[in-house]
Write the structure tokens for this entry.
Amino acid sequence: MKFRVERDVLTEAVAWAARGLPVRPSVPVLAGLLIETTDTGDGLVLSTFDYETSARASIPATVQDEGKALVSGRLLADICRSLPAKPVDMAIDGAKVVLTCGSAKFTLQTMPVDEYPALPAMPQSTGSVSSDVFAQAVGQAVTAAGRDDMLPVLTGVRIEIAGSNISLLATDRFRLSLRELSWDPQPTDVEAHALVPARVLAETARALTSGSTVTIALSGTGAGEGIIGFEGEVGGGFRRTTTRLLDGEFPRVRTLFPAEHATTARLNRTELIEAVKRVSLVAERNTAVQLKFDDDGLTLDAGHGDEALATELIDAQVKGEGIVTGFNPQFLLDGLTAIEEPVVELAFTQAAKPAVITGVPDLDGERNTDFQYLLMPRRLLS
């Protein structure tokens, strides 16, 4: 194995492939990053795999000799970040890999390639979607995904495919996100669903934005069965990720979105975000920020008793009965920042019931229901 590659191209690809390496691998070789050079046209291929998630990146390189080597992925990533802005040469020298960049030279110990597990094959393509749309949709959906590994089902995003429509759902029991988008399915009448780890989905979507489209490939649609794969072009090569689907039954959450609302309020999104940030500075840990909607607009209050207090009044277009409720300020901010429209609408059935937050192009426009964020209220301190 012997090749030359541009420093920035190598650094970015190694960092991407190594991002999911286990901190405490069950066997030493799983901490490795597989480097392969072939004459098949893929140039240089970098791969990682931990039996759950695989990453494979192809980048342009000048290949002189074919071969493969397995080295510590995290160490290689650290070395690449420190290299000068010059071409990188790598070659196998016995049981070691020698990396040279300008006047810098590193010698890395290799791991046994024959002990490294075979990466899973990419399933047959199910369809494709614009990379920008996919990245935006995933970024919004994962906002509500759980982070408690004791409840693994809630750490995933449920992908529901019905013909040309995809729905992404996530919840941590306190909030719920629903993002719907269109795509180009193959075949056109495909019906499938999958529960995908939110972290893997988010990192993959961000990494594939430089190409025009993302290919989604799904094998096995039952919980815990099969894998899902994502692939896209990046800088003259490709990036490919596969991950095993999460096991367990995702809760039936669609019915939580109410069909009608007693009160709606529309506000400038940026003004509301800044007001929540200011007022929440005095909110004690795990306490709510109070929101009072009436004819005067929205009054935000935080703090309690003899401690620091904060209050702020901002403009709001309120329709229906006045309402007083409270939310976890960080959860509220997460939903508001995930919306891209300049105006947001908060819709309520009653104070003790969840609110639905959506984006609106202007105060009098139609709300955009492609992304809906449902947020449970918090008990207010008396």
